[in-house]
Amino acid sequence: MNVREEVVDVLRGIGFDAEDLEDGRDLGRDLDIDSTELVEILVALEQHFGIDIDAEAEGGFTTFGDLVACVTRLLPAAAGRG
Amino acid sequence: MPGAEALTGPDVPDVPGVPDVPGVRAVGIDVVGIGRLRAMLERRGQPMLDRLLTPAEQALCQGASAHHRAACLAGRVAAKEAVRKTLGGHGAGCAWRDVEIGREPSGAPAPRLTGRAARAFENAGLSRLHLSITHEAGVAVAIAVAV
C-alpha cells in the first residue's frame, strides 16, 4: 500500500468515501471539511504515520492532494527519528 | 463549522451584515456542534485537544460533568474561530493556540492573542476585541467584534 492509499484509508476510517478522495478535490468546497474536521484529519494522519504536522501549516491545506503531499514530505523525517 | 467569512467594515462598506457602527472594524461568528466535537475528541484523544486548546483553556473547562466540559470546549473552539475570522486575510496561518480564550472574573470570555494572531491583529489595525459565547440546543455559538 503506497502513501496515497494509506491516506485514503485513514480518511475512510473517519467516514469519507474513497471514491471522493481525488488529489484535486477541494477540502472545503468538494469534501465539506470544516476547520475542526481538518484538525481531526491531521491528528489521525499524525497518529497513523507517526509524523508531526505543524499547527501553522493547517491553513495551507487546500486539496486532498495537499494532505498526501504533506505526509509524503514528512515520512522520511519520521523514519529518521525511528 | 461552516467556512470562515469575516466581514471587514472599512473595505466592504456596502456588504450586508457589516454593522454600520463607528469604530467596528470586523465581525466574526462561528458555531460548533457540541456532540460532534465531543465525538472527535473521544476518537482522537489528548493530541486533538492539545492541538485546539491551550493548557489554560483545558483547565478552565474541567467541570463536574462531561456535558459541561464538552460545552465549554465547544464554546472556546467557536470563539477562537470567530476571533480568527475578524483577522481576515491577516490571520492566514494562525494556529488554534495562537488565540486563547480565558475568562474574566465576571465570567465574560477574555481573548488573548499570541504569535501569528497577535501580529495579524496589529497588522489589521485592530485595537480591541469583544467576544460573546452561548450554548444552546447542542451547539456553541460565538461572536467576535473587533474595533
UniProtKB/TrEMBL annotation, chain A:
Xref: PROSITE patterns: CARRIER (PS50075)
Superkingdom classification of source: Bacteria
Xref: InterPro entries: ACP-like_sf (IPR036736), PP-bd_ACP (IPR009081)
Record domain Carrier: where: 1-75
Protein name according to UniProt: Carrier domain-containing protein
Organism from which the protein derives: Streptomyces caelestis
UniProt lineage: Bacteria, Bacillati, Actinomycetota, Actinomycetes, Kitasatosporales
